[in-house]
Every structure is written in C-alpha cells, then in structure tokens.
Amino acid sequence: MQNSTTGQENYNKRQVTINRTTVARNKRAPLTHNQKLLANEIRIKLHRQLVKAIQQNIEIKQKQYVAKKELEKELSKKEREGLLNKIFEFIVHLFPVGFIGIIATFVMPRLKGVMVYERPLEVVMLFLALCIPWMTQMSCMPLYSKIGHDTYLFKNIRPEKIILKYTPGVLLISVLFEAIFVGVYSILAHFSLNLFFYILASCALHSFFALLMTYGSSAKKWSPWILSWTIYGLTFLFFPTKLLFAPLFASLFILSFLVFK
User: Fold this and answer.
1) How many alpha carbons fall within 13 Å on the CB side of residue 145?
2) Which of 6, 134, 183, 205 would suit a FRET pair with 83, their CA atoms being 20 to 30 Å apart?
3) Per-residue pLDDT tens for 153-172?
4) How far apart are alpha carbons 167 and 158 in whole angstroms?
5) How would residue 201 be classed by pLDDT, with cut points 50, 70 and 90?
6) In which band, very low, low, confident or very high, does the pLDDT at 208 lie, cut at 50, 70 and 90?
7) Per-residue three-class SS string for 43-69
8) Is residue 162 within 8 Å of residue 150, measured between CB atoms?
9) 232 vs 73, more confident
10) Alpha carbon 126 to chain centroid distance?
11) What pLDDT, on a 0 to 100 scale, did the predictor assign at position 2?
C-alpha cells in the first residue's frame, strides 16, 4: 500500500514538472517587428547564397562541358592536320623520284655511246644508282641521331646549326668508308685510277648533298628541299654527261640557304 502511494506521488510530481515547462514555453514573449525583419533578412540571405552556389555550380559544369568540347575539337583538328601533314610529306618524298625519273626518260637516249675513262657512262651510272642510296643513308643516320638528341636537350637550338657543325666530320668518315668500298669494286671491275676518283667524287658529293638535305625533314621546311631537288633534276637534264654537276649545284644551293638563313 505504501509503494502504491509513493508511485502515485512520483507521477504527480512529473506531471507538475511537465505542466510548468509547458506554461513557461507558452509564456515566451512574442517576436518584435525588428526581430521578424531580421529573421526574414537572414532567410533571404541564406536563400540568395544557396541560389548563388547553385548558379556557380551550373556555370562550372557548363565551363567544363565547353572546355571538353573545345579539347575534343582541338584534338580532332590536330589529328586531321597530322594526317594531312603525313600525306604531304609522303608526296614531297616522292617528288625527287618522279621528277628525276621523268627527266631520265629524256636524258637516257643521249647517253648512248658516251664513255667515261674508257667505260660506258651507262655502266658508271648504274653503279652509282646502286651504291649511292645506301651510302647516303649510312652517312645521314648519325647526323639524324645528333639532330634529334640536341633538339631534345636544347629546345631553342636550330637544326641548321647542328647540320653545319657536324656535316664536315660525318662527311669525312663517310668518304673513308666509300673509298674502301669503291676501291674494292674498282679492283674487281678493273676500273682505272681516274675512274675510281671520279666515282668516289660523285659518291662524296651525293653524301654531302644528302647530309645538307636532312634540314628538310628535321626542320619540316620543305621549300628549300624541293628547290634543291629541282636544281638537281634540271642540272641533270642540261648536263647529263657531267655526273658531278647535279649534286654539286644542288649542294651549293642548300648550303647557301643554311649559311645565310
């Protein structure tokens, strides 16, 4: 009985506490006009900040989308330009073969019966046509390597400076190897000493011409490259029996271009 009375008293006390709290809340003073205005201003500021943040987020996404589209467009443009450049370079590299091939059709009939140091000129030209391509390729490989190495290390260095600096040394080494090859072949083919020096001079001039012509592919400047081959072909057309003239005149042109550039 006593426990029941105690429980009832505790319940009554809790109810009294709850009622007092409710009354205290109901007795809070109402907001004044200034407080209402301040509260509205705070709500408006928060709303504006929220709207501004949303707008900034939208603008950022729009800029990212535009930048992505521009990047895709730029990459597509570069791919097209790269493809066009490759096609152009392919056509440019075919130019000397086609141009000199056409000239050769007019020149070859004029070479019949022409002798060079007691050998038919056609035989000498055939030998030069077989050995000059790989000889010049052998000569140019170290120069191409040096151009690539120096332009990678020194971004502002110009290819023509590298070519003019290293061409004499590379040419000297190339001529030494060419002399050995031409000498062995001359002994086997029973060429005279004069013909040996004539062929060696032609090989040396073609190597010199090829070394200077590395400027075209290394600097991507094709106009002097095309002009040099044009001079080579026209010289061969007008002086077909003077095999040293074509590489000599073409080399002098590209050399003067590189020196005075």
Assistant:
1) 7
2) 134
3) 556 778 888 888 888 988 99
4) 15
5) very high
6) very high
7) HHHHHHHHHHHHHHHHHHHHHHHHHHH
8) yes
9) 232
10) 37
11) 46
From 241, 162, 257, 169, select the one nearest 202 (Cα to Cα). 241
Q: DSSP character for 32?
A: P
- Rounded Cα gap, residues 173 and 64, in angstroms: 57
Name beta bridge partners: 169: none
CB-CB neighbours of 257 under 10 Å:
18
Instruction: Give Dmax (Cα) for the chain.
Output: 149
- Please give the Cα distance from 107 to 121 (Å, whole number): 12
Count of beta carbons in the 10 Å neighbourhood of residue 90: 9
pLDDT in tens, 216-229: 878 888 889 999 99
Which run of H or of E encompasses 237? helix 223-238
The pLDDT tens digits for 17-57 are 555 555 444 555 565 766 667 777 788 888 888 888 888 88
Using CA atoms, how far residue 253 sits from 31, 84, 229, 247, 258, in Å, is 96, 28, 10, 10, 9
